[in-house]
Specification:
It is a single chain. The chain has 4 helices and no strands. With 200 residues, the protein is mainly α. The longest helix has 81 residues, at 78-158.
Length: 200
């Protein structure tokens, strides 16, 4: 008979736990579905108020548990009183957790949406900057090609004349001056620090 009662109680506990898990998953999935269908989330102020309410409720549960524990030490049967206080706190926290789950799911969705928006903004800004850089590069390349083409036409027209030879010598001299100036700039850099003296 005792075994039968024990098995029956065990079955009832398992069914109750399964029903509780189903209710939690349904409430979480309904919260997720509702939040995804309604892309409008509560304001930051409303979420802050809800967060504060949940924190206050959690603090009340902890304070009540501390008070119950103090009262337990005033009684003769301390152990059973502590067990009851602990069970009461566990039940209260489970009820609070059921309220917190949909709120936390919504908070995660909001953070995800904000992250997606920031990423999209960064990508669009990066694309604009890249397009501007490409455009500037293309303009500079077109100008260089036009200058080279114009110089080539001038060279072709002056080829074989004394004026053309003079122009070529002038360009060569300008290039030589630039090379010498570059070498001087490189040579005038600060010398490297001396090597440390061994043995010190």
């Amino acid at each position: 008979m005792n075994k039968l009662l024990f098995v029956l109680n065990l079955c009832v506990c398992v069914v109750a736990f399964a029903a509780d898990v189903d209710v939690q998953s349904e409430s979480a999935s309904s919260a997720v579905g509702a939040a995804s269908h309604a892309a409008v989330f509560p304001s930051e102020e409303a979420r802050a108020q809800e967060r504060q309410r949940l924190d206050q409720k959690k603090q009340q549960i902890d304070d009540q548990y501390k008070q119950d524990m103090k009262q337990c030490y005033q009684q003769f049967d301390v152990v059973s009183c502590k067990i009851k206080a602990r069970d009461h706190r566990i039940e209260a926290k489970a009820a609070l957790r059921k309220e917190e789950l949909p709120f936390k799911v919504m908070e995660r969705q909001i953070k995800t949406e904000e992250a997606k928006q920031r990423l999209a903004e960064r990508q669009s800004e990066a694309k604009l900057k890249k397009d501007e850089a490409d455009r500037a590069e293309a303009i500079a390349a077109a100008k260089d090609r036009a200058d080279a083409n114009a110089q080539k036409q001038i060279d072709h027209a002056l080829k074989g004349t004394k004026r053309g030879d003079y122009e070529q010598k002038q360009r060569d001299a300008a290039q030589h001056r630039e090379d010498v100036a570059k070498k001087l700039r490189e040579r005038n850099k600060e010398p490297a620090a001396p090597l440390p003296v061994p043995g010190r």
